[in-house]
């Protein structure tokens, strides 16, 4: 299983980003894009909402997510958000699966 961010639609391109983070079977997952962490300066963080919680992301990642939403994409996998970075076992397991994740991604 992997976690996927489901993009909440918005009527305006400038509306704040809001997502749900849910577990999905990799091979039964809906179409999704995959992004490796978009690096940037920590001082340039922007907040998004994930499962009703405020989560800081870099400005670069925020821009990428805004573009994906504007293109009408429904789901996205981002290593920094979809892998529990605090759980070393999960992180190790998921990193080994990244090849399969990127093969499955659109």
From TrEMBL:
Alphabetical list of InterPro entries matching this protein: HET, HetReg/Transcr_Mod
Protein source organism: Zopfia rhizophila CBS 207.26
Name used for this protein in its record: HET-domain-containing protein
Start and end residues of each Heterokaryon incompatibility domain: 32-105
